[in-house]
Design brief:
404 residues; alpha/beta; Aspartate Aminotransferase, domain 1; seven-stranded mixed β-sheet; homodimer; Aspartate Aminotransferase, domain 2
């Protein structure tokens, strides 16, 4: 049986490819620190599960296609704390941020049309693009300037008659970069110049450090009709398994059309929406504690790694990832495998995500890995030491093996 | 801002269009029996919610992209009761049956390729087709023969070089028709003849009456690689708001590819999967009670409506829907509106789904409505009487108004 072309083209999740080697290492008695997946270890607010356990309706009915009204209102209240005025009709609840991205792609672009995304980018955009039959057009960001927005001429060079939107993720997965207000204004001007939608993946909104505050595309005054924000409670409330996201736009046509896509899939899950309502009502103090903890972790990892002069890394300001560029590593897939098969310190090693999978340009990012700092500080210190020791050994072995 | 073509092309849910008129009727003090939406009133098994309330992990983590292993095993045990041998690797859990359909469409067809579906069919197939950029090719089934599978020559005439699959839904929404084993064998031969996939929407599997037993595409011996079944707990356990479905296939390439689509959206909701495990462990007796209740309801509605000699209706054998063809109704959209705006018996009226939305062929089904019998028997008796009275009045008024 011949499958569809997209069924064969869709990429395997690159951060899951190393799993068999990790399993084999564990079988040999080697413990592994998982720096490869963005699964927070912070507790889900107990209020979330309590609200679900309190459900008493004897029939778990279909909910509204656009989500429970109380959740849409709770989200508006949340955004009001950031001086972002939203009406519940501008918020539609989705099956995780994933579906929000898929809906956004579907509504802005048709088959073969293009969406510009700075690379490295969240791998799963590729999967959604495949499902929506749109093309991702990468523009290159660089470790040397902290993966900030490429210069205008780079953006301009990526525009074609088929370009329909630009997507940015800030705070960024996989780089941790937080775009400045000036960068958002550059994006707004770019979108107006070429009549593009701006899609903002802002699921890490709460994760900004050093006293910085996230600025949203929703704050830009003169592109209100162009902005579509995708959001999720997965990271915000450490509720990745809940699958509650949202798509937000002030463009009424966009929302009306997304509602029709939403009706086709009936509704998002009811119980987790009730949990999300309770979580959104927690207020700011919940985030402060979480933010402090992640900032500490970022500092531990950043300070350790930048002791190696062969590492290029600017202090990331948000999310809980960093892309680490390493002299002496030409193929980070091979390096990540080697860490699992050949490296261990006191029967412990680490699992990192090779960065190639986060690039749309073939061959890019081969000397980089993504580190997710979602472990407690003592474990992170240990993991950083294992990485640095591994890097030193790897360079030495490669150097020794090189032809004279 | 120009939206994508598909964003403007996607159909509004036809069963939701009447909502404003229903709201207006309620404001005038008219009560409405909802015969329009397949929301069962049967209780969700209490075990479902208990299992969720028992969740104690402090972090609601990402689950596996293919679903919780215990749910995939519970489903295999369930199918084993029907002598359908499945391995957990042949079952992938989805965000409702909706996502299962979307994955199936994505994996069998590329842009503009065609999937044959007997009409009338579940409206949302159109939405998924729009999202997946595939074309629905309808083949006509008829009220007069109980909406059974069209003759071979009708199927043959629908095949083009772009045909990739045929989809059947049995027990059927919206017709209630249950395909016979002989019909499934005809489908298997058809699929082999034209090298097609067979997609089976079997979410109403438990809802068969008169002692008949549902036969699954999974039971066909010589099309094992061609069959993809979409499944859901929404109706099976009256858990529509849970969003737990599954895609089932013994074709390893199909499952490997769907897993990659699944990885892109990370995972289905964890808590409801735990509820589903508990529900699947309930055993057969749960279904027997539900089946008896729905059979009684079907009989009440069928017996009442067929007293009208102008109604064409064969006794449906499954699901909880029937398509009712009515002499004297030329435009069932107008008739459904009229029931809300102009008709009432003792300040009560009914909401029905005009059947046009269930047809792919423009203009088809204009003299038909879909009735969902998801109310208790006394309410159904009352609703049927209101429909028959309305139909008589509607015919008389139209007749009186007709030009002499």
């Amino acid at each position: 049986m011949r499958l569809s072309q997209r069924a064969t083209a869709i990429q395997e999740s690159p951060i899951r490819k190393l799993a068999p080697l990790a399993a084999a290492a564990r079988e040999r008695g080697v413990s592994i620190y998982n720096l490869n997946i963005g699964q927070p270890d912070v507790h889900t607010p107990p209020e979330f599960l309590k609200a679900i356990a309190a459900y008493t309706d004897p029939v778990l009915r279909y909910g509204p296609s656009d989500g429970l009204p109380e959740l849409r209102e709770a989200m508006c209240d949340y955004f009001a704390r950031y001086d972002i005025a939203l009406d519940p009709t501008e918020v539609l609840i989705t099956n995780g941020g994933s579906e929000a991205i898929l809906f956004a792609f579907n509504v802005v672009a048709d088959d073969g049309e293009e969406i510009i995304i700075p690379e490295p980018f969240y791998t799963n955009y590729n999967g959604y693009a495949e499902m929506a039959n749109v093309r991702v057009k990468p523009v290159r960001a660089h470790a040397e300037d902290g993966f900030h927005l490429p210069a205008d001429e780079v953006l301009e060079a990526a525009v074609t008659p088929r370009t329909r939107a630009m997507l940015i993720c800030s705070p960024n997965n996989p780089t941790g970069t937080v775009l400045s207000w000036e960068e958002l204004e550059r994006l707004a001007a770019f979108a107006r110049r070429h009549d593009l939608f701006l899609i903002g993946d802002e699921v890490y909104k709460e994760f900004t450090y050093d006293g910085r505050r996230h600025r949203s595309l929703l704050e830009l005054p003169d592109v209100r009709d162009r902005v579509i924000v995708v959001d999720s409670i997965s990271k915000r409330f450490s509720a990745c398994g809940a699958r509650v996201g949202a798509v937000i736009s002030r463009n009424r046509e966009v929302m009306a059309s997304i509602l029709k896509f939403g009706q086709a899939r009936l509704c998002p899950p009811t119980l987790e929406q009730l949990g999300a309502v309770a979580a959104y009502r927690l207020g700011e103090s919940y985030f402060e504690a979480v933010r402090e903890e992640y900032q500490r972790r970022r500092d531990v990892m950043f300070d350790a790694l930048t002791r190696d002069p062969g590492i290029v890394l600017r202090r990331p300001r948000g999310a809980f990832y960093m892309i680490v560029k390493m002299a002496g590593v030409e193929d980070s897939d091979a390096f990540a495998e080697w860490l699992l098969t050949d490296h261990a310190v006191d029967a412990e090693t680490i699992l990192v995500a090779p960065a190639g999978g986060f690039y749309g340009t073939p061959g890019a990012g081969r000397d980089e890995v993504r580190i997710a700092y979602v472990l407690e500080v003592p474990k992170l210190e240990r993991a950083a030491a294992i990485l640095l020791a591994g890097l030193a050994r790897y360079r030495a072995e490669r150097h020794a093996a090189a032809p004279a």
